[in-house]
């Protein structure tokens, strides 16, 4: 995990840490270990490249770099990074896939169920230069 992220005061579950059960936190959690169970928070969860979550995630926002086997429910934003894996449904007002690789759009839209109660909900997909290549139901 980059040092600058740790300096912001986030809690950190490092690689090698394995938790079975519920994880609850308030502000920010950087996860590089494994969790089998539910993760619940009003804050932001970052799932590191080597991290694995087996269970449901309910947070304000989540940034997925590793593996999630379970459903994700966020109240603000869900980001899917390069090489992440999500096996489950995603419910979020904003879903961001970065960068846009050939399978990224398919994985985000074809395999995940994107549900939002917001009238302005949209899926946006960006390439590495942060150019939008997909939004909603049409290619940019």
The total count of helices amounts to 2
Quickly give the structural class.
mainly beta
Percentage of residues in strands: over 45%
* Ends distance: 33 Å
Q: What would you call the shape?
A: globular
What is the N-to-C order of secondary-structure elements (H for helix, E for strand)? HEEEEEEEEEEEEEEHEEEE
Write down how many β-strands occur, each being a DSSP E stretch of 2 or more residues: 18
Q: Number of domains in the coordinates? A: 1
Write the layout of secondary structure elements.
Elements: H1 3-6, E1 11-13, E2 18-20, E3 23-25, E4 28-31, E5 34-36, E6 39-41, E7 44-47, E8 52-54, E9 57-64, E10 67-69, E11 72-80, E12 85-87, E13 90-91, E14 94-97, H2 102-111, E15 114-115, E16 122-126, E17 132-135, E18 138-139
Parallel strand pairs: 1-4, 2-5, 3-6, 4-7, 5-8, 6-9, 7-9, 8-10, 9-11, 10-12, 11-13, 11-14, 13-15, 14-16
Antiparallel strand pairs: 16-17, 17-18
Describe the structure.
There is one protein chain. By secondary structure, the chain is mainly β. Mean pLDDT is 78; it is low at 1-7 and 109-113. The protein is built from two helices and 18 strands. It has one domain.
Note the main attributes of this structure.
2 helices, mainly beta, disordered N terminus, 5-stranded parallel beta sheet, 13-stranded mixed beta sheet
């Amino acid at each position: 995990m980059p040092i600058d992220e740790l300096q912001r005061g986030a809690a950190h579950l490092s690689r090698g840490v394995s938790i079975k059960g519920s994880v609850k936190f308030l502000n920010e959690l950087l996860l590089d270990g494994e969790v089998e169970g539910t993760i619940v928070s009003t804050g932001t969860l970052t799932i590191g490249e080597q991290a694995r979550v087996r269970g449901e995630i309910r947070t304000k926002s989540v940034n997925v770099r590793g593996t999630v086997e379970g459903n994700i429910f966020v109240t603000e934003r869900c980001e899917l990074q390069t090489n992440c894996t999500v096996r489950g449904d995603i419910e979020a007002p904003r879903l961001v896939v970065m960068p846009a690789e050939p399978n990224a759009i398919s994985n985000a839209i074809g395999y995940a169920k994107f549900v939002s109660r917001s009238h302005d909900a949209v899926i946006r997909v960006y390439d590495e230069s942060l150019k939008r290549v997909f939004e909603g139901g049409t290619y940019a």
